[in-house]
Amino acid sequence: MGISMRIRARAFGVGLLLLALAADVLAAVQVKGVRLWRAPDNTRLVFDLSGPVQHNLFTLTAPHRIVIDVNGAQLATRLDQLALSNTPITGVRSAQRSPDELRVVIDLSAPVTPKSFSLAPNQQYGDRLVIDLFDQGADSAPALPASSAASKPTVPVTPTQTTAPRTATALPAGKRDIVIAIDAGHGGEDPGAIGPKGQHEKNLTLAIAKELQRQINREKGFRGELVRTGDYFIPLRKRTEIARKKGADLFVSIHADAAPNRSAFGASVFALSERGATSETARWLADNENRSDLIGGVGTVSLDDKDRVLAGVLLDLSMTASLASSLDVGQKVLSNMGRITPLHKRRVEQAGFMVLKSPDIPSILVETGFISNHNESQKLASASHQQALARAITTGIKQFFQQSPPPGTYIAWLRDQGRLSSAGPREHVVSSGESLALIAQRYDVSLAALRSANNLKSDSIRIGQVLQIPATTLAAQP
Ligand SMILES: [Zn+2]
Questions:
Q1: Distance CA 390, CA 384 (A)
Q2: Which domains are assigned to the chain?
Q3: Residue 318: its pLDDT value, please?
Q4: What gap in Å lies between CA 244 and CA 110, rounded to an integer?
Q5: How close is the Cα of 185 to the center of ligand 1, in Å?
Q6: How far is the CA of 201 from the centre of ligand 1 (A)?
Q7: Which tens digit of pLDDT belongs to each residue from 355-372?
Q8: Ligand 1 centre from 288 Cα, in Å?
Q9: Angstrom distance (rounded) from CA 367 to CA 188
Q10: Rounded to whole angstroms, what are the CA distances from 132 to 61, 80, 280?
């Protein structure tokens, strides 16, 4: 969103304020619509309002119900058209208890822990009342695959932290997978940037994230974990918390942004900057991405105030180490992306993205392109381009971890056994008379691996072309 939009939004805000004042005087606040989002461990109901309201929420049992009394409100929408499957909600009904008190009753099939809060208008929405219903009882966190049993020790984040299931099929200690947390930007009522044809960034990012997970899972010694698995909102800090719970070695946030200048195009990669952005674009994008919490609300986050001073000190120390890694992996991802798509900037940029503020996990944010650009938004929506982007990101991640594998991982073990042909990526400049097959043979890599490392669709190469030679995995491991 650009400057003109901001001015319009401000004018719109003033309009809403006047509208709200008028509504106060003339009539009750209208409940204009209700939206529902299901996340793995909670259900969110969002009531769209014509103005701010006071509300009161309480729980009833036998049968389980949530009752919300909304003062000064009238229902101006239907509540019976919500898609309730896969949620603990069996029905939502209402009663007008008096001209200015609306009661909404949520019928439940299981007890939930409710949280409710109001959200003020922003560029996308007006006043909202948000009801989050957290699942209770059985461990509601998504199940972890068996191999995560050997996950590295993680910093405890919440008392409800899950322990990975221990099974006989777990990899022996010292050969765990390197875990890549893949964060699809935005989601739920936060659509992210919106393209010229109404494409929502949240859908593109999820499609690319899923493809990236698929490709990472194909690499032995690596495992991709999705931070967001569907269309629901996750506050920014919660995203890094989920990554930490999954034992992430790297956090990759996927985005596709919009710019005020519709002709802006190209991909970029960001790492965290604590001291201000390296460019105006970086600053602008960081503002835009961080706005997400204003759109979706941070009502589900409980910031831990205790030990804040100590936490701050530790954070500074480990932040420095993970920032160096972030810049390194970011540059490798960027170089690989540069082979398949134009780059907006040739170097990793730094900006104060909230989602990158994990002290102990190297974190990068990938802007896959501008969906505000007509051509680029079409490309980003195509499966083949999504695959190419995922391939480039995967290659960059592999190059980084083959160079510096975390101790105790399968990749570190391979390196220690001398089975990684070289610590770093090698390059080969094609000369006259060489074929791709010949080069593959010379470096003792498979033709498929060579193709994939260079995002080649065919085997035709040209003289002077620079090829990345992937590290050799000499033998398949049991
Ligand atoms: Zn975004």
A1: 10
A2: 3-135 (2.60.40.3500), 178-403 (3.40.630.40), 421-469 (3.10.350.10)
A3: 53
A4: 29
A5: 5
A6: 7
A7: 777 767 888 999 999 999
A8: 7
A9: 20
A10: 18, 19, 36
